[in-house]
Amino acid sequence: MQTYKFCYGMKIHEMLDYAYHHGVRVLFLENPEVLGRLKLMWIKSGERKHENYNHRVAVFRSSVIKMITMKTPLYAIDVKYVDPRGTTHSKEHDMIMKKYGLDRHTASAYIIALCGLERYGLIHKATI
Protein backbone atom coordinates (compact mmCIF):
# COMPACT_ATOMS: atom_id res chain seq x y z
CA MET A 1 0.00 0.00 0.00
CA GLN A 2 2.81 2.41 0.84
CA THR A 3 4.49 1.77 -2.53
CA TYR A 4 1.24 2.68 -4.30
CA LYS A 5 1.02 6.02 -2.45
CA PHE A 6 4.65 6.74 -3.32
CA CYS A 7 3.93 6.02 -6.99
CA TYR A 8 1.03 8.45 -7.38
CA GLY A 9 2.92 10.96 -5.23
CA MET A 10 5.67 11.03 -7.83
CA LYS A 11 3.11 11.46 -10.62
CA ILE A 12 1.63 14.42 -8.77
CA HIS A 13 5.06 16.03 -8.58
CA GLU A 14 5.56 15.42 -12.30
CA MET A 15 2.19 17.01 -13.07
CA LEU A 16 2.86 20.03 -10.87
CA ASP A 17 6.35 20.44 -12.32
CA TYR A 18 4.87 20.39 -15.83
CA ALA A 19 2.22 22.95 -14.83
CA TYR A 20 4.80 25.22 -13.18
CA HIS A 21 7.07 25.21 -16.22
CA HIS A 22 4.11 26.04 -18.48
CA GLY A 23 3.09 29.12 -16.47
CA VAL A 24 0.16 27.74 -14.49
CA ARG A 25 -0.54 29.88 -11.42
CA VAL A 26 -4.01 28.63 -10.41
CA LEU A 27 -5.16 25.02 -10.35
CA PHE A 28 -8.88 24.23 -10.22
CA LEU A 29 -9.81 20.97 -8.50
CA GLU A 30 -13.07 19.26 -7.67
CA ASN A 31 -14.24 20.19 -4.20
CA PRO A 32 -13.58 17.13 -1.98
CA GLU A 33 -16.52 18.00 0.31
CA VAL A 34 -18.93 17.85 -2.63
CA LEU A 35 -17.35 14.60 -3.82
CA GLY A 36 -18.12 13.11 -0.41
CA ARG A 37 -21.81 13.95 -0.82
CA LEU A 38 -21.94 12.81 -4.45
CA LYS A 39 -20.54 9.37 -3.65
CA LEU A 40 -23.75 8.63 -1.75
CA MET A 41 -25.72 9.15 -4.97
CA TRP A 42 -23.54 6.97 -7.23
CA ILE A 43 -25.37 4.09 -8.81
CA LYS A 44 -23.77 0.72 -8.31
CA SER A 45 -23.88 -0.79 -11.75
CA GLY A 46 -21.70 -3.13 -13.73
CA GLU A 47 -19.27 -5.65 -12.33
CA ARG A 48 -17.61 -4.47 -9.14
CA LYS A 49 -14.85 -6.59 -7.67
CA HIS A 50 -15.69 -5.52 -4.12
CA GLU A 51 -18.76 -4.28 -2.28
CA ASN A 52 -16.91 -1.13 -1.13
CA TYR A 53 -15.96 -0.09 -4.68
CA ASN A 54 -17.67 3.33 -4.63
CA HIS A 55 -16.29 4.16 -1.19
CA ARG A 56 -12.76 3.15 -2.20
CA VAL A 57 -12.90 5.26 -5.38
CA ALA A 58 -14.14 8.30 -3.44
CA VAL A 59 -11.43 7.90 -0.80
CA PHE A 60 -8.75 7.53 -3.49
CA ARG A 61 -9.96 10.64 -5.37
CA SER A 62 -10.13 12.68 -2.17
CA SER A 63 -6.65 11.56 -1.11
CA VAL A 64 -5.20 12.55 -4.49
CA ILE A 65 -6.90 15.96 -4.29
CA LYS A 66 -5.56 16.46 -0.76
CA MET A 67 -2.04 15.51 -1.82
CA ILE A 68 -2.17 17.92 -4.79
CA THR A 69 -3.38 20.65 -2.43
CA MET A 70 -0.49 19.97 -0.04
CA LYS A 71 2.16 19.99 -2.78
CA THR A 72 1.07 23.07 -4.78
CA PRO A 73 2.78 25.62 -2.47
CA LEU A 74 6.12 24.02 -3.42
CA TYR A 75 5.46 25.14 -7.00
CA ALA A 76 3.89 28.55 -6.21
CA ILE A 77 0.52 27.42 -7.58
CA ASP A 78 -2.77 28.40 -5.93
CA VAL A 79 -5.58 25.86 -5.55
CA LYS A 80 -9.23 26.79 -5.98
CA TYR A 81 -12.11 24.36 -5.56
CA VAL A 82 -14.99 24.07 -8.00
CA ASP A 83 -18.27 22.21 -7.59
CA PRO A 84 -18.17 19.32 -10.12
CA ARG A 85 -21.95 18.92 -10.22
CA GLY A 86 -23.46 19.04 -13.69
CA THR A 87 -20.18 18.88 -15.58
CA THR A 88 -20.80 15.48 -17.18
CA HIS A 89 -24.48 15.64 -18.03
CA SER A 90 -24.99 18.93 -19.84
CA LYS A 91 -25.42 20.26 -23.37
CA GLU A 92 -22.16 22.18 -22.99
CA HIS A 93 -20.36 18.91 -22.18
CA ASP A 94 -21.56 17.22 -25.38
CA MET A 95 -20.73 20.28 -27.45
CA ILE A 96 -17.17 20.43 -26.08
CA MET A 97 -16.68 16.69 -26.67
CA LYS A 98 -17.67 17.06 -30.32
CA LYS A 99 -15.93 20.39 -30.94
CA TYR A 100 -12.53 19.41 -29.53
CA GLY A 101 -12.72 15.60 -29.93
CA LEU A 102 -12.34 14.95 -26.20
CA ASP A 103 -13.40 11.95 -24.15
CA ARG A 104 -15.99 12.31 -21.39
CA HIS A 105 -13.53 12.78 -18.52
CA THR A 106 -11.30 15.29 -20.29
CA ALA A 107 -14.34 17.31 -21.34
CA SER A 108 -15.51 17.34 -17.69
CA ALA A 109 -12.09 18.56 -16.56
CA TYR A 110 -12.23 21.27 -19.24
CA ILE A 111 -15.65 22.42 -18.00
CA ILE A 112 -14.43 22.44 -14.38
CA ALA A 113 -11.51 24.64 -15.44
CA LEU A 114 -13.83 27.00 -17.33
CA CYS A 115 -16.21 27.21 -14.35
CA GLY A 116 -13.29 28.01 -12.07
CA LEU A 117 -11.95 30.68 -14.40
CA GLU A 118 -15.37 32.28 -14.64
CA ARG A 119 -16.14 32.00 -10.92
CA TYR A 120 -12.90 33.67 -9.85
CA GLY A 121 -13.18 36.40 -12.49
CA LEU A 122 -10.24 35.32 -14.63
CA ILE A 123 -12.37 35.18 -17.80
CA HIS A 124 -15.88 36.25 -18.75
CA LYS A 125 -18.64 33.92 -19.97
CA ALA A 126 -18.75 35.75 -23.31
CA THR A 127 -15.18 34.65 -24.13
CA ILE A 128 -15.99 30.95 -23.70
Walk me through the structure:
By secondary structure, this protein is mostly helical. Helix content is 56%, strand content 8%. A two-stranded parallel sheet has the order 1-2. Helix 4 (91-100) crosses helix 5 (104-119).
List keywords for this structure.
mainly alpha, two-stranded parallel sheet, 2 strands, 56% helix, 8% strand, 128 residues, globular
Assembly annotation: single chain
**SSE-based structural type:** mainly alpha
Radius of gyration, CA atoms, in whole angstroms: 16 Å
Give the strand order of the largest sheet, numbering strands 1, 2, ... along the chain.
1-2
- Terminal Cα span: 42 Å
Largest sheet: 2 strands, parallel
Shape: globular
- How much strand content do the residues show? 5-15%
Helix content: 55-70%
The helix count comes to 5
Arithmetic mean pLDDT: 79
Order of helices and strands: HEHHEHH
Low-pLDDT residue intervals, each spanning 5 or more residues: 40-44
Strand segment tally: 2
Q: What can be said about this structure in brief?
A:
This protein has five helices and two strands; from the N terminus they run αβααβαα. It has helices at about 1-20, 30-40, 55-70, 90-100, 105-120; strands at about 25-30, 80. Strands 1-2 form a two-stranded parallel sheet.
Topology:
Layout: H1 2-21, E1 26-30, H2 32-38, H3 53-71, E2 78-82, H4 91-100, H5 104-119
Helix pairs in contact: 1-3, 4-5
